[in-house]
Write the structure tokens for this entry.
Amino acid sequence: MVIDVHCHHGLSARKTDKGIARFSFEPDGAEGAPGYDGYFSPRLLRRPAWFFVRRWLGVPRSLGRGDELDARIERIHEQQWNDATGADRLVLLAFDEYRDNAGRVIGPVDRGRRYGSDLYASNSFVRSACAQRPDRYLLGASIHPYRTPDEGRMREMLEEVAAARAALVKWLPIHQNIDARDPRTIAFLRMAAEIRLPMLVHYGGEMSLSRQHMEFEHPGPMLQTLRELRRDGAMPTMIVAHAATPSFVWQSADGFRTLTDALLGEFADAPLYADISALAAFGRTTWLKRLARRRELHRKLLWGSDYAIPVMLRSFRRWLDRETYRRIAAASSWIQQDLLLKRALGFDECVFTRAAEILPIGS
């Protein structure tokens, strides 16, 4: 079974739907913007990444946040997901809001604000999308570890999403403000291990959302936390998104090297993995080529697309024969293009099928 472990879902201004099954910790959707199950911040809509993604998706510039834009995005999502015929399952990712060190939520913010949320997609909303095609979609939950100081309540939240058949929990520390060495983070990871709920955590560079806490870019502190949890027999399955690569080749790759050394060294027989999502995107293509050549790493890699990030296929033209290039370019889905490209670059088939072995997806 081929699973895309990294597929984003989100809308610009989705009102809370009381008619769907709701998680107890999301009775009214966003805490920072009550009444919404999903939003894009004004700051996000002014970022260069949104300008380019909007153009590539064919979304008119005149459409601002609201129902009309969201209807267009939903049609695009449906087409892109349906046309990804090489993928058996897609993990659709929820995305929790930003919290400060005291656990206070900060909702959608405009340009000029240093801290806040650029993107929110409630677990309830994403679960409802998955329920429409349970044979096709898997819930990727997102719960900020600073949501509550009550460990009992946090366990209830984790157990609730696990009972809803969540495949994993997603974090983006440099945007959401998540310190791997914070006691709340460590307690969360310990609970995730007990519940057997994998983690998908983004380390390395970031281009789409605001980089608010670059002190959390490097995977080193998380590896230290995992080292301690493993010693206690309490390490969760951990997937490091984008293999901790920098956004551009001229930036420091120390995080990437630290992670790959750990994958092949002290964590070689531990449930630590990396996904190869977003590596066909602008700025990261060099890392995808390098990983394709490093076959000794393939058993520790998982496929992900990072949809709705487009594939920069032209960067790989000289690596592909003409027929293969045309076949990939003809695919109407960016997810399908991503899958075909990574297979053509020589990634072992285990990269595309291993997620079915490590995610709790049932039968």
Remarks:
- Residues 2 and 353 are 5 Å apart (CA to CA).
- The longest strand covers residues 3-8.
- The mean pLDDT is 94.
